[in-house]
Amino acid sequence: MRLCITSTGKEMDAKVDPTFGRAPYFEIIDTDTNAMELIENTAARQGQGAGIAAAQLVADKAVDGVLTGHVGGNALNAFRTAGIKLFVGASSQDTVKEALAKFKQDEYGELTEPAATFPCGPERGLGPGRGRGLGRGRGRCR
Fold first, then answer.
1. PANTHER family given for it (predicted)?
2. Same-domain status, 72 and 23
3. Would residue 109 count as lying in a domain?
4. pTM, whole model, 2 decimals?
5. Which pLDDT tens digits describe the chain residue by residue (142 residues)?
6. CA geometry: angle at 57 spanning 104 and 13, to 5°?
């Protein structure tokens, strides 16, 4: 399988980036041979539509699956249209190498339905604080 893992750096020891569309790099790894191809996510610099543009960038590399922490609805739809499997829940504490090992041990399930919407509002992360809900929860209002 050709698996794309979102990454903060250019090597297998780099940490996993938990956001798909804004991840700086995509490491495409052949899960049988561990051969790796690195792609810079040029879509991350876009103001809007980064998820869809990044999904197209990955789809153009003929990947079979994507492993990341979180993916937005538009990118999810793009993956479904392209027939790319999506695996979420990767931790920013793990390196790409560790995430790959966990993937090979079936620790990530395939996302088959959109993730539940988190209830947001002034009391749940969108208040007047400096983070505007984009702290550790990355705007997902945990």
1. DINITROGENASE IRON-MOLYBDENUM COFACTOR PROTEIN-RELATED, IRON-MOLYBDENUM PROTEIN
2. yes
3. no
4. 0.79
5. 999 999 999 999 999 999 999 999 999 999 999 999 999 999 999 888 889 999 999 999 999 999 999 888 888 999 999 999 999 999 999 999 999 999 999 999 898 765 544 344 333 444 444 554 555 554 544 3
6. 40
